[in-house]
Amino acid sequence: MHLTGLDLLFWAAGLGAHLVLLCVLLIRRRFRVFPIFTTFILANVVRTLALYLVEVYGNKASYFYTYWSLAILDTVLQLSVVYEMYSLTFRPLGIWARDLRGSFVWLVAGSIVVAIGLTWLATPHARLWMQVVVIKGSFFSSACMSELFVGMIALSVKAGLPWKTHVARISQGLGVYSIIDVLIEAGHSYFGVNRNTQMYTTLSHFRMTAYLCCVAFWIVMLSKDAKGTRKLPESLRGQLILLQGNVDLQLERVRARRQS
Amino acid sequence: MIDRADIFIGAVAIFVGSLIAIAVYYYRRARNSTQNDWDSLLSRLMRVDRSSIAEVALDVIDESGQQRNDQGCAILEPPEIWKLLGGMEGVEALESNSRVLIDLAFYLQQRYPEALVVAEQLRLSAREIEWQVGRLRGAAETGKLAGAFPMYGQRAAAAYYLMTQRLLDLYEQGDPPRLAALQKAL
Asked: I need a labelling partner for A9 at 20 to 30 A (CA). Which of A134, A244, A249, A250 fits?
């Protein structure tokens, strides 16, 4: 595979940015709150190094299989990051908010149906069936991700559940990148890779630029501390525990009344 | 002639446009609610007759929120409940106020994040009220409002009453100077 100077620059910039972000996550102890996100960033570092080694020492076939195996892993980890962000937002007391469980099912099902519909409409021009699968698969993945992040914003606001500072920043970065990625993957599908791959390569460079901006945003935001909070006085803490006991009891009574 | 690729691009444009519009709308809503100050929150409360709500609620629950089982409970007739709550408009005002009450609890939670547990219970109560009002709207559309109102309306009133009591308790402990303003607004 022939790599241009620009390709190598993106490769090096991606590796460097991920290494810096990984350092931020480790030094600022963010990995304790975001273990899946940290794994996702670590996997990107490993992926870049692995692909470089296969490119230098391997052959075309081994590069192909390594690249797509790691791309699938990357997609799985991105979805896991979505889960982590949902978990940190919609489990304020350690369990999933019971008023939102139905909405989650509708959101996930709706996102998949819409993404399948759009992917079905795509007719990428390609020489190999594998290229069609890759282009359609990437589009489907980006469409789902963007829907899930926008759905997360809508659900949290509708339900009145606030985002924690760093959760908001990670979600904003990945959400904006996903929406840009939808446009780029749609461009990949529209222009295809039939005769001239120049447009495909240019769009890929745009995607990498958008992603690097996203990583830079995470580096800056995750290196900052969240807004300071005030310590709850001990007397108030005790009163709140008592009050909470009463609240639980009252809600049970109201529910019993409803069912009677 | 329009081919499938053009339809695809059009569909993607609508899809992305919709996503951005939804994200911007909710992002602005979230931003507004975090920038609310105390006075602007109180100004959003709609006027409701608190004594009437208490009368409807205390017909089925006692002051502590426990269900009443004595002989004098559940004596209000459907027309009385309808009149006391101000009909459908009155219940919708409760729904609107329940959203404001969540923001008030959120306000306190911002200052004392450890009050999260109570704030979450308040939020769940507000969602219950929304659910009850949703059932009432459904009944109104199918022409069964008169039959459904005493059941759902009284439950919404009971949930609202308990929620306001809880909020007042919370502010009494956490922010006494502002308790008087809240009591007046509720």
From this structure: A134
Cβ of B118 and A243 within 8 Å? yes
Judged by a CB distance cut-off of 8 A, whether residue B168 touches chain A is no
Task: State the Cα–Cα distance between residues B186 and A52, nearest whole angstrom.
Answer: 65
Q: Are residues B71 and B9 in the same domain?
A: no
Rg of the Cα atoms in chain B: 21
Which amino acid appears at position B23 of this protein?
Answer: A
From chain A, pick out residues whose CB is under 8 angstroms from the CB of B153: none
Contact residues, chain A, for B63 at CB < 8 Å: none
- Taking the Cβ of residue B97 and every Cβ of chain A, the question of whether any pair is shorter than 8 Å is answered with no
ipTM above 0.90, yes or no: no
d(CA A238, CA B180): 23
pLDDT digits (tens, 9 = 90+) for B2-34: 788 889 999 999 999 999 999 999 988 877 766
Which residue has 């049970």 as its token pair? A252
> B120 and B131 share a domain?
yes
Look up the domain containing B22 and give its range: 1-44
Q: Which of A158, A162, A250 sits opposite B162 (nearest CB)?
A: A250
pTM listed for this prediction: 0.73
Last residue of a domain, one of B14, B29, B44: B44
